[in-house]
Amino acid sequence: MCRIPDIKIMSSIKNTLLLVLLTSLQSLYGQPVTWDSSTSYSTGALVVVIGETSTYIATQSVPANNTPPNTTYWTNLSVAATALNVPVEDVPSLDIATILASLPNAAPDANSTGGGSSSTSKFKGIAARGLVSSSQPMFGGIIISGNEDKKIAFMGKGQSMGVSPYAADPILEIWSTSGKLSENDNWGTITDAVSSNLSTVSSDISVPASTAEAGMVMTLSPGSYSFVLKSKSGTLSGAMIEAYEVDSSASRFKGIAARGLVSSSQPMFGGIIITGSEDKKIAFMGKGESMGVSPYAADPILEIWSTSGKLSENDNWGTITDAVSSNLSTVSSDISAPTSTAEAGMVMTLSPGSYSFVLKSKSGTLSGAMIEAYEVD
User: Fold this and answer.
1) What is the mean pLDDT of each run of 10 residues along the chain (377 residues)?
2) 273 neighbors 354 (Cβ within 8 angstroms)
3) Cα–Cα distance between 201 and 242 in angstroms, integer?
4) What is the pTM of this model?
5) How far apart are CA 74 and CA 86, in angstroms?
6) What are the chain's domains?
7) What gap in Å lies between CA 268 and CA 138, rounded to an integer?
8) Contact of 307 with 354, CB cutoff 8 Å
9) Which residues contact 32 (CB under 8 A, 6 or more apart)?
């Protein structure tokens, strides 16, 4: 029988989840910045003006020194709120493309990096593998953008990875900002009313090989969600979180973050699948200090791979050493670059297909690190 977790442990897990959501995934939303007269802004940028209470969105590229509410370039978010029938305070949490689509005078341009996605290609699936135990979970989350519900298959795998040592009995929890939504121990058994069995998904999604592994299907409204993946054993072993869209809803994965333990010899692994027919620009980051949680990997290293081999490697995000990546400083301010130059990150334009990442550190001691991947077009 599984021992009921200590209240202090559960409180710590919840606090950490909220920290991950508010500090690491919040950057996927369009967060307003204070308007600056010397700055030019891309389509979709959100700004506030000192002394005013309104938030404005750029409906086209804005040259410097054009103060809101100059209607040639800016529209008050209250206009979008009326068109979308939502409270004005909820508008910044929507996908930028959704906001712009509600405005009759918006003119998105091809060079915009304002946080919305104009590409028809998208994340189809996301996965991250690391070390877990009963007291040392993996944490992470996803953000769903758009205005329709999205059906998602979540899985917490051990034996199915085909890599040893693995967590024989993983447990998966799904959380929203208001609390835990669902928990699953054995994927064939559903114990709550908000989830359904993985057996309902199509054959192109591989369910766990062992009934002791975890998984469920959930229909979620746009917003931010996090997961906790742990095992019943007190020994650190490998486990993997997977999330796949299982419907054709217009809403989409906006990005993923996953946090676990890494060292120079024990990396975190994971991957993304991009579907569609267009290239997709993605910002990848490998964070340590920026997480705000200790102990952290002070000098993480991030590698991006395709099926044909390694595409890019980055040690310090301000320094790009290959021809296929660009600097994180090229993305808009709604994506938070690492706070330390010793952390890793790059922007890459990738064609539809499968890609994987390796996140490790220069230290031989296991410490916390986090991978993030965001749409930037």
Assistant:
1) 38 42 40 77 79 81 84 84 77 69 56 46 84 91 85 94 91 91 95 91 84 95 90 94 85 83 91 86 92 90 93 94 88 79 94 92 93 84
2) yes
3) 14
4) 0.66
5) 20
6) 7-27+119-375 (2.60.120.380), 31-101 (no CATH)
7) 10
8) yes
9) 46, 47, 48, 55, 92
